[in-house]
Amino acid sequence: MLADGNSAALVDRRGSVDWLCLPRFDSPALFARLLDPDAGHWSITPRGPFEAARRYLPGSLVLETTFTTATGVARLRDALAVPQGQRGHDLGLRPPHELLREVEGVSGEVLFDVDLVPRPEYGLVRPLLRLTGSGVRTFGGPNQIAARFPVPPEAGDAAVHARLRVTPGQRLGFSLVWAPPETAPPEPTAPGRVPERIADTAEAWRSWEAEHDIYRGPHRDLVRFSARVLKGLSYRPTGAVVAAPTTSLPETAGGERNWDYRYAWIRDASLTLEALHLGTCPDEASDFVSFMTSAAGMPGAAGGDARTGSSLQIMYGVGGEHDLSERELPHLRGRWDSRPARAGNGAWTQTQLDVHGELLNALHLYRERLGDLHPEIQRFAAGLADTAAERWTEPDAGMWEMRGPPRHHLSSKVLCWVALDRAVELAPRLGRHARTAAWAAERDRVRAAVLRRGWSERRGAYAQAFDSDALDAAALLMPLYGFLPATDPRMAATIEAIARDLTEDGLVLRYRVNDDRGTGGDGAADGLAGDEGTFVLCSFWLASALALAGHPGRAEVLFDRVTGFANDLGLLAEEIDPRGGGLLGNFPQAFSHVGLINAAAAIDRAHGDGRV
């Protein structure tokens, strides 16, 4: 993944950019070969056989790929540019929407084939191209794209081609820049300046990391890298955080569980803030709170309004957009022939009552850094608590966004308890909007209901929903949010039941998709066909719960096993294939890197060393 604080690109081991959306994460893709071989890419690949070794330049999201061929060695460096001289907290403001690529000869000589195949709007458009000396421009449509090469390219079939020969000491720069159609034609960086611009972008990332160093424990490298990934998934102009930079990467090859994750889920963004809370500066916390209050429509039914029955929307566009209507992209073949590919996400209309708890927990963690709360923020937080108090008795779609009938999901009840518990603690900061006694009383009623109706005697564990016998990894949130200690006998039994009965080859499933115990026997538990992989976040939850339960050794073994499935750069997807060990689902996934950071912290606390 490359990132610039507004969007992201994905580059494969062949040096091919197979995914790029500009100017935002959720913009229609310019390159989408990730989802269809004919949907666009930009490759700089050695001719003939080669071996590739990759790394990020230290402290950055600038990618370096070293190609070794029979005739020589060369390096390819890739970056999404940031403005010249940008540093620290400003990283991601006003990016030039430019992809920079540099080839450097190391030894011998290496021949490269360069193919630039822009296909805007998810591959629907074959743009008109015009060569401009050592570059090319597109004409027509809702995008302007301009590129510069260090050698004269050739055009044909709505694509641009070039061949390179690189020898030791040579550094050849490429650039591609995007602009909207109503502006002047964009000017890509000159090839001779590309190396210095890439170096400056790497330094910008290092300066951000130096200001956001969140961890000193034994898992330092993994945690620092995950924090960098989460920054790369942040939309700096508003403070939003996307769940992933991709759409429609399947949860099982050939299946229909292919969703668009390029939006700001309240849950994912709140958990990201929680994971980074010691390293996040006050401005970033304020940016996120500002995004949430404005996206939720402040003033008015902020966070939902118990009087009108409205509820906080579970997700928004990165600019605060509400309507994320889902549509299929039938012209795309789909990754591994997994149809349909989708843009938009129909889950935006769902009721998921847990989001009130995740957001109030984040506000609670940041209460000191946020200082005195603006009256609108006070009202927003109180609205979250009031809605949780009023609506916790209702069924919902649950945090896994099940597309079957609404149910009384245990995790939603527990997170409503979290909302009320944190609201009680925040009450002195909420001014006239605080209803401390009412929130405390309703919090106790939620707790009693969960303890009574959430327990399955048949399973000997807390279940997926009230009066159900199906297991759900979300029950692991109970000790992680302080609802019950991990050493409580029933909680300890639940942790062991999940470790025993909800795992494949030691990795944790969210739930068993065909386990309809407690659903009335109406078929698959989530209303969808097919299977899915083991869920990375849930495996990290289990590691955290084991650490809290006094089993840090078991937790460390599981932690090391899960992190071992990351790709060669350390990036984690949403899921892991329990049969083949491959990564499944959208990539890279914020949830997965959040889980890594939190599990590392829990294990360190259990061992008595390190901290986050």
UniProtKB/TrEMBL annotation:
GO MF, one term, reads:
hydrolase activity
Gene3D superfamilies registered for this protein in UniProt: 1.50.10.10
Keyword check for Nucleotide-binding, yes or no. Answer: no
Q: Name one Pfam family in it.
A: Glyco_hydro_15
Q: Where is the Trehalase-like N-terminal domain?
A: 1-147
Query: Can the keyword Hydrolase be found in this entry's annotation?
Result: yes
Q: Which PANTHER family match?
A: TREHALASE (PTHR31616)
Q: What is the name listed in the Swiss-Prot or TrEMBL entry for this protein?
A: Glycoside hydrolase family 15 protein
Q: Which organism is it from?
A: Streptomyces zingiberis
Task: List the lineage, top down.
Answer: Bacteria, Bacillati, Actinomycetota, Actinomycetes, Kitasatosporales
